[in-house]
Amino acid sequence: MLARIANNLFWMGRYIERAEHTARFTNVNYFSSLDAPNKLSRDRQFVLQSIYEMVGEEDEQDEVLVEQDVLYNIALNPDKHYSILKCITYARENANSSRDLISNDCYETINKFYHSVINYPKEYFVTRGLHDFTSLIMHQSTILKGKIRGTMLHDEVYALIKLGINIERATQVTHILQIKYNAAEQVTLSKPKHLKKSYEWTTLLKCVDSFDINRRVYRKPPTQSTVIEFLMLNPKSPRTVLYCLNQMQLHIAMLDPLKVHEKGTALFLIGKMRCEYEYKTVEDIQDDVKEFIAHTFSSLVELSDKIEDEYFYH
Amino acid sequence: MYNYTIKYTAENTYENPVFESFWQYIVTPQNNSTQELNSGLFTVSEDALVEKSINGYNFETTRIHTKKPFESIAFEAVFKLTKTKADPFKIDPKFTIEDDYKAISVLDFQVDYEAFLSTTELTTLPKAHADLFDFDMSKSILDNLKKLNTWVHEYIAFKEGETTSETLLEEILEKKQGLSPSFTHLLCAIARVNKIPARYVSGYLHQGDGFFGDSQMYAWAEIFVPNLGWIGFDPANNILTDHNHIKVTHGRDYKDCEPLKQLLFSYGEKKSKCVVEVTYEQ
Amino acid sequence: MKPTNFKHLFSSYDGNENLFDEIFDKKQNVRKVYQKLFDIYNDQSIEEFINLNNKAKTSFFNQGITFQVYSDDKAQEKIFPFDLFPRIIDANEWKIIEQGVLQRCKALNAFIWDIYHDKNIIKAGLVPMELISSSANYLRQMGGLDPVGGIYNHISGTDLIKHSDGKYYVLEDNIRCPSGVSYVIYNRNALKRSLFGVFNHYDIHTVTDYSENLLEILESVKPKGVDVPTCVVITPGVYNSAYFEHSYLAKTMGIELVEGRDLVVENDFVYMKTISGLTRVDVIYRRIDDGFLDPLEFKKDSAIGVPGLFAAYKKGNVTLVNAPGTGVADDKAIYTYMPEIIKFYLGEKPILNNVHTYHCSRPTDLKFVLENIHNLVIKPVDEAGGYGISIGNRLTKPEIEAVKKVILQNPRKYIAQPIMSLSVHATYIEDCQSFEQRHVDLRTFTLLGQDKEFVLKGGLTRVALKKGNLIVNSSQGGGSKDTWVLKK
Fold this sequence. Notes:
Strand content of chain A: under 5%
Distance between the termini of chain A: 13 Å
Shape of chain B: globular
Order of helices and strands of chain B: EEEEEEHHHEHEHEEEEEHEE
Distance between the termini of chain B: 6 Å
CATH class of the largest domain in chain B: Alpha Beta
Largest sheet of chain B: 5 strands, antiparallel
Radius of gyration of chain A: 19 Å
Number of domains of chain B: 2
Strand content of chain B: 35-45%
CATH topology of the largest domain in chain B: C8orf32 fold
Strand order of the largest sheet of chain B: 12-11-10-9-13
Shape of chain A: globular
Largest interface: B-C, 25 and 28 residues
Oligomer: heterotrimer
């Protein structure tokens, strides 16, 4: 497997996953905030800023955000590197360079996906199309991931895509957790006792499409500690950090399983982090949740750099 | 017997880091009937892969590949070789002047020496200058070439600064000045127009005897004279080549013999310095 | 039941009897091989056909079988126009074509060997030295080099036309990096999907065996001492117009598709950079032009090549397919000498006809050409893709004068041929929603390896979509058709 192509496959996975998270986050934040119990949670500026924070747009502090601009930038602006359109474009470019390795079915799906995004009417989107567009992205990326799993040989090509998808997912889940934790803090600034049961925890779960699953696990409304425990440490739900770490270990091991014995390799480090999270309890992290989230985020970034250095550059 | 030491040094500095680079030097003296290379040592200041290889015409190259960023890099090559005086060539008296011209008009001869008979961009004589120098058919080819060598020497002034190794003859003839590559290109061009195979030689000149030389590589021509073979002419000094000329490579013109080709991944300004020292002990 | 407004597909077909129509004879009767196909098509309404046509187009688009068109600074993706009415070549006719192109390719291979070795054909006075030495594609670095198996043009694309006399003529030999074979296969797939049941009526040769044969050819020319060779395809990159084909071939051969930056030369061996380090590469099917292969040997500013590649090739540590320097023989000026070349090396008579060619480098020919431009096609000798071609009878007087001027500036660069009347084929024209006559040619694909040869039974029938146009290249607005070679 060529190092350059491996890099492209890894990033193809990351971009597909990133587009999906951006779409869902925007959708959930926009719509579920419309009837939020807290006034600040309903505030449009608050919501739009949160969306910008998700994609890392650094807006001017005092600037009043225009809803249509924000939505356009997030979804369809070809000049914003974080836009969903750009993610799908990059994903397809990566697929183009490795189309001899991925299945025809997979390529065709990604190609159609790209064309449906690139041709999506801008006017319609910023006025009425937010739900339709974000649903399309979530739907298409799910289909695409299904095709990847269902039509490709589960070899190193597959492993690299999955590795990208899972590291991106873990990173996004952690990032969303970070944003929502801050939001919950702000919303309950005057009444810190309310933090533990803030409505933001519900939104948070919806942002990672885990509200219903969480309900089945805990059978009561989400609280700070159940949400943190669930999103960080639950091994069974597909959008949690521990689940992704398990997947990452599984797939990176397909590339060169012997590296597990080598200290300091990406495989070794992923295994180490995975074990750490497997045996962590919510009580261990409760005292400094913020610090733990930040630590998780930076560990994931370091892992990604390590993977790239080890496999993609010679 | 002359025991030569040749030192080729080059230093390059860059405004921004060079991330990856490839270099190909053609500076190693060849082995032939009058020169024998005893040792060659190539060193690079940076961490790099240094390999000996060949170019498309089977001359030795030194190829360097760097993978770590640097802002300056230095190369040094030291060659030691022995040079002997060539035997004076014997002109076969059976061979008449007519035979001379007959030999070069045979198709097989023209096909076999095609590479050094057809012109290149750097050895194209501008149409306006087509009759700069006329061959005297009553004299032998060798005599004509000697005369031509002198003529080129007198026509152009040896002067640095205004031209490069790749300046076209049109400009050289207009400015009437240049360095050894331009002298050589003009000599080759006129020989080829007269259907005599001529090739560009790149090498080193020992300047101890008061010859004109370039500060870097030096150029002269080898011209094929029927029944004698390839004979070296140094038009910049108006002599036939001798023990002061150390040959590295030959080709159709300067472009085949470029001492350095490189590929760099960087941007911005760069500064380069290259020095050649040629010394011998008898 | 047919709708009352049923309009036959061919109801408005206007057969020009001065042209050779592949489907209809002079009396406008359907030729025998096309009868069944014609009946099936003619049974469909325009609406049904439009529907089929749109589906086929969408299918091509979704599969990403597209090329980039740049206009108004924006890149747009377009599919290669594909026509749903196939061209049929019967077994006897094909036999001649196959033997003919194989003969040409072998003769060209022998010619290239000779040109880079003893140059006997020149010494025999049959081909002028000047023609070779002035060719921009003559690589003197190849002199004296013996490629594995003595093969230079492993892959050749020969362009044929059917003239109004019903005979095939060779228009060009493409032996640098001929492209188009992937369209042959995709056209076939598209047609199979669209035309339900039609294939049952005809017994035709498959075209999908191309890749396996190509891989065998690549493996047959592995360097000495290599047991199981690692073969790769090298591409200039995703933005190259033929990238789709490069990836298709790599995929169907099951080998890596690499770019220059994926390869590195160490100690005159070629390696590719993989996730687990360097892996030696033995055979490179290169889709990069000669000049860009190695920046240390050829064009200094080539960013798509591999530094040191040519030295590795020269030392016999890697095989390049096609060999560098083959372009000297697909120079259109060499084309004229093909009958002599075939006779000289093979001792045979040419099976396929050559179109008479005038060399502007010859004073008598030049004079004739300048006086008769209105009846001639003028072509530059070293351009591909249909660029720089002037067709005399389409030119205005000032244009003719301009062409004359251009030729006179560098006569060696031009040849002229009589305007050949390419045969026409029924082609669906979207704007008119009906079938019309359009000019077609045929590109065949021939493979030569060590002790192996192969001619793809089929080919790319290219169509000039503009009415009356004779230039079929895709870069000039041409389309293509599936080509059926019938079994005996």
